[in-house]
Amino acid sequence: MQLAGRSYFKDSSLTEEFIKQPALSQKEGALQGAEGLLLLIQECKSKDRRAQKQLYDRFSPVLYAKIRRYVYEVNHANEILNDTFFKIFTHLDSYTSSGSFEGWMHRITINTIMDFLRKNMKREQIARSEVEDHDVAIPETIVGKLAYKELLALVHSLPEVQKSVFNLFVFDNCSHKEIAAHLGINENNCRWHLNDARRRLKEKLDALK
Question: How many domains would you assign to the chain?
Fold first, then answer.
């Protein structure tokens, strides 16, 4: 069964649609190695709906977790996940198997998140002073005591731009040049937002002592 058009992903949840697909056999469920992944990708390129469901089931949790670091609202996060898998399924032919498939999906996910954030960020939130602050250090001992959900809640308490810069730099290992390109700001502003995010987080962490 071929994928429907883009409106399919907008009008209904991928999760709801895929859960209606027949259950995978034991043999199909066992395809977890590198060869199995390549075979699964080939089947998805052939528009095999059950293969698409397996790919979705396999990778949607980690991609959704990445999205939720940037987006607090569940409905928006689900929308981004749907858009991400739409792009994955419709651009699979551009994946040549010469690099990491997970890395390829990671780039699509980040680009989709950034597309969403750019549409929703106010320009006045992005423009900041070009003066670079001194680097703000966050004590690792305090961070280590926090549960993941607690740390995620603190990150989500940041203003949108600071949150995006912090996530891209700390969790997704993007350079200041890459972050600046993603958000449409210059590198000095990127550094300012990162330090401001660290400062805000340090204040909140100090309050937890």
Answer: 2
